[in-house]
Amino acid sequence: MTVVSPGPGALSLEWGVLIDLHTHSHVSDGTDAPAALVAAAAGRGPASALADGVPRLDVVALTDHDTVGGWDEAAAAAREHGIDLVLGTEVSARAEGISVHLLSYLHDPQDVGLLALFDAVRTSRDGRARAMVDRLAVDHPVTWDDVVAQTQPGTTIGRPHIADALVAAGVCASRDVAFADLLHTGSPYYVRHAVPDAPDAVRAIVAAGGVAVMAHPGAHMRGRIVSDAVIEELAAAGLAGLEVAHRDNDDAQRARLDRLAQRLGLLTTGSSDFHGDGKPNRLGENLTSSEALAEIERRGTTRMVRA
Ligand code: AMP
Ligand code: ZN
Ligand code: FE
Ligand code: FE
Prior knowledge:
About 35% of the residues lie in helices and about 15% in strands. It is of the alpha/beta class. A seven-stranded mixed sheet has the order 1-2-3-4-5-6-7, with helices on both faces. Helix 1 (about 35-40) packs parallel to helix 2 and helix 5 packs across helix 6 (about 175-185). Adenosine monophosphate (AMP) binds next to helix 5 and helix 6. Zinc ion binds near residues 28 and 29.
């Protein structure tokens, strides 16, 4: 059993088992291959990928945006490196005009309804990214090819790839600067993509045997956040939990979300939202309890990959 000595933030409690349920590989907008991400989570990669005081995780989830494309590679790597793996997807949705991300865990990766939803969102993301580049190119030296150069075949394209292209072109100093200056939702270069209504997305996840957890529900620095009423509606549609411990939820939001979860009978989780070198988030910087994970596994259709 791994015991982390008391430290700042989420790690000030002693966690018997280190469980991080939200990460991205280069199958979406992370920078590591799925196998490299899993190796890093198992303590077999660069120590810099892990939060201070975390030697390795016991359980990691792979949750690339709107795809199951990394699942097979991650599963093979988990067996090789001896770490438990929860397979998932971060599903793009919208409620009251606000972008909502739903973590789906342990769904059937061949479910026709969910795969059709992912296809539609990914197609819309491509068109939207091209439209954003068209707008940006009027004022900045960036092309669609520059964005494609930041992706792998099959990658779910998002604003982070446009940010990386802007960095490579010397327009912005970092991903964060690109978001702050050019890519934020209020920017004239911002274009939306077509996504399902959040309650419909929750129902699609549940129909596919998945367990739906709302990602970073209180991340107000990214844009507007949803009201309690939306979370109530999602709970009625089958939402299982709220990702409370996430660096983008401040203390007031965490308190609000804990209260809501208690009232609505929802699980609470904590995760890093690791994106490799693309963001400062480190593996294990926020954690999920083994009780919450046990409930997710009980409700999910796909089995966890066991070390
Ligand atoms: P998209 O889904 O294409 O709209 O891009 C959203 C993704 O960009 C999120 O999942 C984050 O990974 C990243 N992101 C959103 N806001 C920011 C920000 N302010 N700074 C850096 N990354 C961000
Ligand atoms: Zn992302
Ligand atoms: Fe997200
Ligand atoms: Fe994420």
